[in-house]
Write a structure and sequence with these properties.
With about 400 residues, the chain is of the alpha+beta class. The protein is built from six helices and 24 strands. The two termini are about 40 Å apart. About 40% of the residues are buried.
């Protein structure tokens, strides 16, 4: 299983047997090969993925931001003159070093090549480059005060570069990015932009693509630009500054269903998506003001019609709970205080019916809290649902509903 990070913070949309990630994500790591320096009291652990250097992402271009060692943040300092990578600061200072490559490397790791080219058990050869793979090598100095065995590692990553049509002057945007040249792409936490890239498909190497096969014509720029701009809209952060209105990231394994990942990104953006005549449209945030009205003359009376005035108990809620990944809690899921409504509970016969809102693509506590409040305010208590077939010639855009 391969992973990539579209926009990952903490565990990139790339990691595991095979990952990739958009946005900011955290990725867990498993030590695959160990080389010991028994005479000197050292052991070096190299994370590999089926013979390739460290598999943090199978899509290049991710950025390593922070590292968690045995449930502690481990800041990285200056590069070691010995070539071991960045020296870990804090509690592990002098006992750990981490070297990271972003997938654009063209040669084998020089430290491992020089040290293990003649190793009788695990020789390291010049063709062990890992092209296109983001990887890390870790070195630890054995000390029982810090390590009773190989430590557990997590890597906080900023995800893969993605294509932004708003920065492409050939498709109605303004800028140097080009769909045909991934070298011009940049990293982003814009949720609508991440969805756009998944819909078009993400190159994961070896001639394979993960995601959809939409063309630019299937994703009209006017609608897409509006959704991306809505995600980028600056809102107060509560500390005198601003943050984008909707941002996020998620870790993706290559065996994950693209539709399921898109669904999580849509939740984090309060967005909806629909296919209309072969064209995909997205709406971020609340609906626009109505610009289209139906009358009885528009209904096709020869077709079956449905009317549901009373939702079932399973579709009725009087409370809401929310969980989301919290970077400052070592990327563990954090549960927001639930919200209940005593009046609604009384209406439902004294039963507490709680909607469980999960936001795995929202690693920003203030954003998760706001989405939680939106869900609380948006709970529908008594709705009426009508299914009607309309006369030919009617075309209703998602943004008009």
């Amino acid at each position: 299983m391969m992973r990539f990070a579209l926009l990952c913070l903490a565990f990139a949309l790339v990691a595991g047997p095979a990952h990739a990630g958009p946005g900011a994500v955290a990725i867990g790591a498993i030590v695959r090969a160990i080389t010991t320096f028994a005479a000197k009291g050292w052991f070096a652990a190299f994370l590999v993925q089926t013979g390739a250097s460290i598999a943090l992402s199978v899509v290049p271009g991710c950025t390593l931001q922070r590292v968690i060692i045995d449930d502690r943040w481990a800041p990285l300092g200056a590069e070691s003159p010995s070539g071991w990578g960045g020296a870990v600061e804090g509690p592990y200072a002098g006992h750990a070093w981490i070297d990271y490559r972003d997938g654009r490397q063209t040669t084998a790791h020089p430290g491992f090549l020089s040290a293990y080219a003649a190793d009788p058990d695990r020789p390291w050869s010049a063709d062990m480059v890992g092209p296109g793979t983001c990887y890390a090598t870790t070195y630890f100095f054995y000390n029982r005060q810090y390590f009773n065995g190989l430590p557990q590692l997590r890597f906080e990553m900023l995800g893969i570069p993605v294509y932004d049509p708003r920065a492409d002057s050939t498709v109605g945007g303004s800028g140097p990015q080009r769909w045909s040249n991934p070298a011009t792409w940049t990293q982003s936490a814009n949720l609508a932009l991440l969805i756009y890239n998944i819909m078009r498909g993400i190159d994961v190497g070896a001639g394979l693509r993960w995601g959809g096969e939409c063309t630019a014509e299937d994703l009209p720029p006017d609608n897409g630009f509006a959704a991306m701009n809505a995600c980028d809209l600056a809102i107060p952060d509560g500390a005198g500054g601003t943050v984008p209105q909707y941002r996020g990231g998620i870790e993706v394994a290559l065996d994950d269903e693209p539709a399921a990942i898109i669904e999580e990104l849509l939740k984090a953006a309060c967005a909806q998506m629909a296919e209309i005549g072969g064209i995909w449209k997205i709406r971020v945030g609340g609906p626009a003001m109505p610009t289209y009205f139906l009358t009885d003359d528009d209904v096709l009376v020869s077709q079956e019609q449905q009317f549901d005035p009373f939702p079932s108990l399973s579709d009725t809620w009087n409370g809401i709970s929310c969980t989301y990944p919290d970077p400052e809690s070592l990327w563990e899921s954090k549960k927001a205080p639930p919200r209940y409504n005593a009046t609604w509970e009384a209406e439902d016969g004294g039963r507490r019916l709680v909607a469980d809102l999960r936001l795995p693509a929202c690693p920003y506590p203030e954003h998760g809290a706001e989405l939680f409040l939106v869900g609380d305010r948006g709970m529908v208590r008594r709705d009426r649902r009508c299914d009607r077939a309309l006369q030919g010639g009617h075309r209703i855009d998602l943004g008009l509903l």
